[in-house]
């Protein structure tokens, strides 16, 4: 499944290329609670068709009424981009379905250049990281290659947004847990690859849309070249496969690196990596294990939910409270059980 940003841009390009009039809306700023983060985009066609979102739905409805003929409105306007704000008053916040105290600022681009979007998508499809700059006063939009995924910003005149290839996840091990996790990652817009040199596991893989990578996991991780938008998750339960893959991943800028295993096995893994491969407590700080958040999961499907939640938290730069850390949560439950043991 393609990321929503790429879907919005690709749809807007196709609509423009077919002669349709299009509005591209981007969330520029938020104050208080907001249903969608800054940088979120939606494309609106002159007949009222929409792809993507900037809120929970009410603001989309207002934009459709204002800028299309779908409900007898004046239709799509042309001209320079506009900056509009929703939810300044309590009445507006209630009207547009914003959370209490929420305020949203949007940048509206009327009829963006089809050639510009085509150039942007060509760069993204080739695997490049592209920085897009829009001057709302002049309407000029430029594209430049970028080495790092800078944060979205808007200073009132210039919008800067870094767009890149979708997030990727590489799974080591092709068991049942990997299939559930792959399904969830695809649903969340990740490109998913799986590696398992054991033919009895890879031969039974049943999830469509996943790239199968042949070879030993450490070689595959090296060729995969994890970047800031990559996650590497070791799920094979075989140290000969997981450990070397993790070593390669730890020397990359991957935003998430994790390995399945109990608390004891996770500690033994850390000891092996330090004793035999020169890793240190500091270098292993990035290694998640046991992976996932604590939800009392038992089945492969439940464990996949907990792991996907932790990956998304890392992707979104959210610090999770200690109460959902698997090790801390289980220690707390064990201590509580001891207190209640007669």
From TrEMBL:
Superkingdom of source: Bacteria
Domain (XdhC- CoxI) ranges: 15-70
Descriptive protein name: XdhC family protein
Matching InterPro entries: MoCofactor_Util/Proc, NAD(P)-bd_dom_sf, XdhC_CoxI, XdhC_Rossmann_dom
Domain XdhC Rossmann intervals: 169-311
């Amino acid at each position: 499944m393609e990321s929503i940003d790429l879907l919005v841009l690709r749809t807007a390009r196709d609509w423009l290329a077919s002669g349709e009039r299009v509005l591209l809306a981007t969330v520029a700023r938020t104050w208080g609670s907001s249903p969608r983060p800054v940088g979120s985009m939606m494309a609106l066609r002159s007949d009222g068709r929409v792809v993507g979102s900037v809120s929970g739905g009410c603001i989309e409805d207002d934009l459709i009424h204002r800028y299309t003929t779908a409900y007898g409105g004046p239709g799509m306007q042309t001209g320079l981009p506009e900056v509009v704000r929703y939810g300044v008053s309590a009445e507006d916040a209630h009207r547009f379905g914003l959370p209490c105290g929420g305020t949203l600022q949007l940048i509206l681009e009327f009829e963006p250049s089809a050639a510009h979007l085509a150039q942007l998508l060509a760069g993204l499809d080739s695997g490049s990281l592209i920085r897009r700059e829009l001057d709302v006063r002049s309407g000029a939009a430029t594209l430049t290659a970028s080495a790092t995924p800078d944060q979205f910003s808007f200073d009132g005149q210039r919008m800067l947004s870094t767009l890149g290839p979708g997030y990727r996840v590489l799974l080591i091990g092709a068991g049942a847990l990997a299939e559930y996790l792959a399904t969830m990652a695809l649903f969340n817009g990740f490109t998913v690859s799986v590696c398992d040199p054991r033919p009895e596991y890879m031969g039974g893989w049943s999830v469509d849309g996943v790239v199968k990578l042949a070879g030993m996991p450490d070689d595959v991780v090296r060729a995969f070249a994890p970047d800031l938008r990559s996650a590497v998750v070791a799920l094979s339960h075989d140290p000969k496969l997981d450990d070397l893959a993790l070593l390669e991943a730890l020397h990359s800028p991957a935003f998430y690196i994790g390995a399945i295993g109990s608390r004891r096995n996770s500690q033994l893994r850390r000891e092996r990596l330090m004793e035999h491969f020169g890793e240190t407590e500091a270098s292993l700080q990035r290694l998640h294990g046991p992976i996932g958040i604590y939800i009392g999961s038992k089945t492969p499907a439940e464990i996949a939910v907990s792991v996907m939640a932790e990956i998304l938290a890392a992707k979104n730069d959210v610090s999770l409270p200690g109460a959902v850390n698997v090790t801390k949560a289980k220690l707390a439950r064990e201590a509580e059980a001891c207190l209640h043991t007669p």
